[in-house]
Amino acid sequence: MNSDPPLLEIARLRVLFPVKGRLFRAKPPPIAAVDGVDLTVGRGECFGLVGESGCGKTTLGRAALRLSPVTSGSIRFGGTELVGLEGAVLRRIRRGMQMIFQDPYASLDPKMTVGESLAEPITTHDVARGPAVAELIDEMLRLVGLDPARKHQYPHEFSGGQRQRIGIARALTLRPDFLVCDEATSALDVSIRAQVLNLLADLRRRYGLTYLFISHDLGVVRHMSDRIGVMYLGRIVETGPVDAVFGRAAHPYTHALLSAVPVPDPAVERTRRRIVLAGDIPSAAAVPAGCRFHTRCWLFEQLGRPSRCRQDDPILTPVDTAHSAACHFAAEASAARMAGVAPTTRRPRTVRVRAEPV
Amino acid sequence: MSGRQTRSARRGEEVQPEAALLRVRNLQVRFPVGRQTLTAVAGVDLDLARGEILGIVGESGSGKSMTLMALARLVPDGALEADELRFDGRELRPMSERQMREVRGGRIGLIFQNPLSSLNPLLTIGEQIAESIVFHLGLSRRAARERVVELLDRVGIASPRARLDDHPHQFSGGMRQRVMIAMAIACDPLLILADEPTTALDVTIQAQILDLLQRIVADSGTAIILVTHDLGIAASLCDRVSVMYAGQIVETARVEAIFGEPMMPYTWGLMDSIPRPDQPSGSRLPMLPGLPPDPLRLPMGCRFAERCAHLRAACRAAVPPLTGRGTPGHLARCFGTDAEGWLDVVS
Q: Is A197's Cβ below 8 Å from some Cβ in B?
């Protein structure tokens, strides 16, 4: 990577949510949605965060913007500590950090025209005044590939992909350095998804934006990210450069995730061995003791259920340059023959235009 | 995976009309919208062999779910029209609603995306599955209960006897989908209609459900029509795949052919726009420009024309018919790649 200080530095972050107690019962302990996460994102980098529902990836993304209550730990953005900041100072810094949501429909006011929705952050933060507001709105709409003439229309008049473009335009009006994209393309159809992914990649190149890219879709995360983190029950269990994590997975959960995703290639699908994890994802209210993954771990079973996995909570330990995994048996996991996604056998297709008949 | 071999033997055969489990000709679904008519399904033909898994893929609004609903006659009366809708040798169109109820949940099992909305929250899991068994198979309550235990065990629910009296909310999303599958297979169906059965589930849970569906087909030879937007699922589970666009099937072929030698520019676009592991990260994805057409303002000619990179005047003049391509059973709706067309595909 580079030697500049990282744009975002998260250390030992914990986000606990209180659980409502029941009358005459002992108050249950809080749920740790994020349970001790360290994460750095360099300027201009795209860090991908993958994991299944309830793993804490959305809470972590929101916490990075101080939108989730931080219980303990540190979040430094551009060198400034955000934990403990309040009011105007926090608001000023947060201008540089924006979020793109899965469902832009839910984040756009249906009774406001698109132009009004875009004007709101501009006037609130006093980015522009008078005619400059309209100019900025037009510029933003053009930037995301929409006709500025449509700013007088309402959200329901746009398709899902177009609404996501509006969401992106709205996030960009304050000229942020950092965007949290939370399942930003998950609600979109594949052909529209490619359009929005290309737009996000273009904007990143053009403005040197930094992304925290959260998705359950491993293919999309792989395509967008430089480095990734795999989350399970509030922890990052594996992190590293995208090719290292996807190519030489060192955590049994990463292996299982990679093998679970069906790929659009029948030849690969016919021959692949899928690791089918037993059981459901445990609830964050009942995190298993020892390694939190051991209750579903195929390697734990393969190794004869070692007591270490049931007793010691593994921490992220380097397995290679910049590549770490939180597994007592990372070496065994790396060596597992059920390695990641098999390379596709699809050959590139060429379409030739036939010579015109005379 | 043990079912692969028996099925691949079946896969290559031509479907004989009398042997076909399902034969559909010119299926149409239309709804009045204000003073206009919205055509959600515009003339779909389907042939399904016993034990075959057919995938219907497409994007939202392509008519894939509506096609599936229409096959079970789950669209309002008057919306459905067809020249033929024959299941297991019987024409479904003239059947009364009462007769249809016997078919649905009996010889045709149904699995939907969101099991919570199809399960009754007030009834226990045992009661709901038993109800269908009593209705369709005429078993006694006691015998039905035993069959439910057996079914829950078959779909991988641990200690089934203890969970009989649980309500749907006491099950996780993956477990509920297993319950739905147990209901769908309760009466030994010949055909399961599955609409995005794993879309609401996490990938590791999805893998469990796909595994289960594969085992059911291998054990019982049930045919499945699987509607999905996920080409990966289609590639992993299906024998044949039909691609739908704007209410029409635009391409149908055996799974190897549709992924190996697709013959319709929309299919190319769909496949190319999925990120591939061998593409460098952050590189531009090939993408289809624009949007699908407005179903109330469909073009005269090819419905994909406005987004197609290979468009010619002929494409705007008439709707291209579904015609044969390279391998037997491979059909595509494209003037460019048909015998007289202007496109050569080199794979």
A: yes
pLDDT along chain A (358 residues), means of 10: 80 92 80 94 96 91 93 95 92 92 80 93 88 93 91 90 91 94 90 91 94 93 95 97 92 92 87 82 89 95 96 96 96 72 61 69
The reported pTM is: 0.89
Q: Write out the two tokens for A98.
A: 């924006």
DSSP state of A111: T
Pull the structure tokens for residue B287: 């993408």
Instruction: Set out the domains of chain B in order of their start, with CATH numbers.
Output: 1-107+189-293 (3.40.50.300), 114-186 (no CATH)
> What tokens appear for A331 in the block?
């070496």
Please give the structure tokens belonging to residue A28. 């249950």
B275/A197 touch (CB, cutoff 8 Å), yes or no:
yes
Tell me how far apart the alpha carbons of residues A78 and A39 are, in angstroms, rounded to a whole number: 14
Give me Rg for the CA atoms of chain B.
Answer: 21
Please report, in angstroms and rounded to a whole number, the separation of the first and last CA atoms in chain B: 28
CA distances from B57 to A64, A353, B179, B188, B268 (A): 38, 27, 25, 26, 13
Quote the DSSP letter at residue B104.
Answer: B
- Distance CA(B199)–CA(B231), nearest Å, equals 12
Q: How far is A294 from chain B (nearest CA, A)?
A: 15
User: Which is nearest to A233 in space by CA: A55, A10, A15, A24?
Assistant: A55
